[in-house]
Amino acid sequence: MDTEQQQPAATAEPPSRGGRWDTVQPWLTLAARLGLAGVLGFAAATKFPPALSVQSVEAYQLFSPALAEFIGYTLPLFEIALALLLLVGLATRYVGAVSGLLMIVFIAGITSAWARGLNIDCGCFGTGGTVAPGETAYGADIARDIGFLVLAAIITVWPRSPFALDRLFGLHR
């Protein structure tokens, strides 16, 4: 008999990140989901009647009148759809990514208006259009949208959260 006893081979289990993150992450994502859903829902609601949204899009002077009208009418509906999907937690990762891309588009539009010297309200929450010089808040608008982009990034990277329909389909347990 061999005098040396063999040690069992170590299993190749991935190391755990730690209990605290595993406990906090789903709730952080839930907060991000609900926060971004609330923002998108509120933004959509303030764009009704759609003529207000059309006016906001036209103020950026980036699109033909027909395209600005199309965007103005469809943007609130798109925001409502994203808000509802985030609220119920369906296709969470994808909706988070699309919401993040939407925030990037908003940031680019505001930056474009600022760079071209336009004096407009962003129209993010209600009426937009021309404002008096000095009444623009481009820096604050961009900072706010970067904050919303961070929420979207959290949702995209860590989509697992409680009270999500994704769980019913076996996603992000």
Automatic annotation (TrEMBL):
Membrane topology: Multi-pass membrane protein
The species this protein was found in: Nocardiopsis mangrovi
TM segment ranges: 27-46, 66-87, 94-115
UniProt keyword Nuclease, yes or no: no
Pfam name, any one: MauE
Name listed for the protein in its UniProt record: MauE/DoxX family redox-associated membrane protein
Taxonomic lineage from the root: Bacteria, Bacillati, Actinomycetota, Actinomycetes, Streptosporangiales
Keyword Transmembrane: yes
Signal peptide range in chain numbering: none
Domain of life: Bacteria
Subcellular localization: Membrane
